[in-house]
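Thought: the user asked what RNase III domain-containing protein looks like in 3D. I have the sequence; next I should run the structure tool and report back without guessing.
Action: structure_tool
Action Input:
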Amino acid sequence: MELHLHLQKKMLCKAYGTEHRYSMAPSSSWWRSLFSPSNNPFTLLHCFKRLQDYTNLKLVTSSQEKKALASLKEMEKIIGYKFNKKLLLQQALTHPSYQESESYERLEYLGDSILNFLISKQQFFMYPNLSPGSLTALRAANVDTEKLARVAVKYNFHKYLRHENPVLSKQIQVFIKAIEKYPFHSYGLIDAPKTLADVVESTIGAIYVDSNSSIDTTWEVAKILLEPMITPEMLQQNPVRKLNELCHKRKLKIRLRDKWLKQGIYEVFIDNQLIGKGVYKAKKEIALNRAAEDACNNILNNISESLDR
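Observation:
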């Protein structure tokens, strides 16, 4: 009986809020009266009504909770938005590996759609002469994984991300170092951790929900985070597409050698001559892009040298 009562007490406390503790515990007689047969059926609504009768109940914030609240306030200053429901921001910053609360996945799903709409709307009116294809390419560059991951690093989102994944921490540090070489975008040459992009999208989703679905409020925050935007003048092609167009223009036939599975390598040949090589064991697409970029640079260098002779 005592064990059963103890389990019921734990269940009720969890339902009432696991992130708080109580300064004064209800007496054993109070708990017994709460779970007495006369109170059946045992419903959550009934439990809360009984809890409201317990006037000496006080919520006490632990030092860990104070630290978490301080972090949320810091994030609010960073993004320039004060949440009415702080738990939304906390959820937006919670990776699936963090077991103690709901993750950002649903908010990320929402934020992804909202961000695509906001950028589409902005570019539609800003660039009235751009074709749908050009608008699509421009939007993709401004909301793809690398762009949003850069936003996360710029505003230190990763420092407030709640996770329990040591591999992720290392990936983030590698990415931070890699972007030093490319001021705005690498266009597929570096591996951006998807988690960094996800946490930006989940934050956008959280703002949208917290602001009662206000598109204007959400855009005010998003447009600042996304600056500087990639413009049509800044937009570059994916290395593979750039290589294909260059070779088509120069009437060059290229051949790719896929050695990625065993060695993490892609090679580009023209007339059986190695002209480009890309290495990246973690992701095949990155290795291919690096090989294509290397090939483009070598082709252009050869053309330049020929003109100088």
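Thought: the tool returned a structure. Summarizing for the user.
Final Answer: Structure for RNase III domain-containing protein predicted. Confidence is low (pLDDT under 50) at residues 1-25, 37-60. The first strand starts at residue 21 and ends at 22.
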